[in-house]
Amino acid sequence: MNYYLTKDVMGVIKIREWLIQLRKERNLTQQQVAKGAFIDRAYYAQIETSTRNPSIAVASQIANFLHVNPYLSFSAHLSEPFRIALLHSPVIVAHCDLELKYTWMFNPDPDFDTNLVIGKRDDHSDLNDGITELMELKRKVIETEATIHRRILFPLSTGHTEYYIFGQPLYNDEGKVLGAATTSTELLP
């Protein structure tokens, strides 16, 4: 399974762990996910154990069954020009599911390790006014299905940093909201 947060083997392992965790949190067996994704259970087990990579079609079927955006969890790497343009820029792009758990993050602040935040909410790692405001923004985006933007101040290891955060709903192929996308731009002094 390719995941465009990282190209290293450790990142792929973390994503597969997230897939297993997601399945278990929803009290699903491998058989249930395989049946819901219209694939063989043995094939699904091989995906979880990293012995097989799913095709784009199969990855989409699994993601749809688990109600995560297939383009986030199982897609090819970001296009090289896009990746280079954003890398080390003051822009962070992230997606979360309906429970506000991260399903994807690109170019985070150095205080955040993508391998540790995927599958978790902001308040699982820290709690401060900035995180509370960010979580409320994402909740409102999901509940109202509206685009919302605001400035939010975060206490980071390098001091307080203000971000302009733009949030919008993420939809599945049937038009049902399955999470929120955020773009955070660091406001330079």
TrEMBL record:
Q: Which SUPFAM superfamilies match?
A: lambda repressor-like DNA-binding domains
Q: Which domain of life is it from?
A: Bacteria
Q: Which PROSITE patterns match?
A: HTH_CROC1
Q: Name one Pfam family in it.
A: HTH_3
Q: Per the database record, which ranges form the HTH cro/C1-type domain? A: 19-73
Q: What is this protein called?
A: Helix-turn-helix domain-containing protein
